[in-house]
Structures are given as structure tokens and as C-alpha cells.
Write a structure and sequence with these properties.
The protein is an alpha+beta fold. The chain contains 2 helices and 5 strands.
Length: 97
């Protein structure tokens, strides 16, 4: 299964998912897969963000909940920002990812 998300979605999830928390399961984003639908969920224990996303080959995925560590999303955010910077510098304008 391949999940496609926008850079804005990654940024929003990172705003909610805490950087450090004694409850380690909150230090990431839950990928909830059920009935051929995928939802990304982040919470800090007080706020919750649930974002339905598109996914390829989700029919073959096993229903369940999986946690993506926050640091991997932070890497995606950093890579998107780097791509925007390089694209804007080379072409004189910004680029939405």
C-alpha cells in the first residue's frame, strides 16, 4: 500500500503529534486502515486530527492500525521544504508540494 499526502497535511500532523511525551504511542501518527479506507490520526492527548487520505492498492492491505514515528514525518517535511527551496531558487518562484 502506498499513501499519498500533501506537504500541508504532513505539517498539520506534525503540529499535533508531540515531539516528546511519556506516552510513546502519541509520538507518532496512526495509520488507520479499514474497509479499503485510510485515515491518518495524530493526537497530543488534548487535540486530535484525523485526515482521510488516498492510497494505492489499499484493497490488498490488512485492516488495522499502524504507527509511523514522528521523526519519519519530520524527514518528509524537511525533504519537501528542501525541494521547495531548490525549486524556488532555480526558477524564481515557490512551488507547492
Amino acid at each position: 500500500m502506498k499513501i499519498t499526502v500533501t506537504h500541508d497535511t504532513v505539517k498539520a500532523l506534525l503540529l499535533i503529534a508531540p515531539k516528546s511525551d511519556i506516552r510513546s504511542y502519541l509520538q507518532g501518527v496512526c495509520v488507520d486502515v479499514r474497509n479499503s479506507q485510510v485515515t491518518l490520526v495524530a493526537t497530543d492527548g488534548h487535540r486530535l486530527l484525523a485526515v482521510p487520505v488516498s492510497a494505492d492498492d489499499v484493497e490488498s492491505a490488512i485492516d488495522g492500525q499502524y504507527i509511523i514515528a514522528r521523526r519519519y514525518l519530520a524527514d518528509c517535511d524537511r525533504n519537501c521544504r528542501d525541494a521547495q527551496y531548490h525549486h524556488g531558487r532555480n526558477h524564481g518562484h515557490g512551488h507547492s508540494v
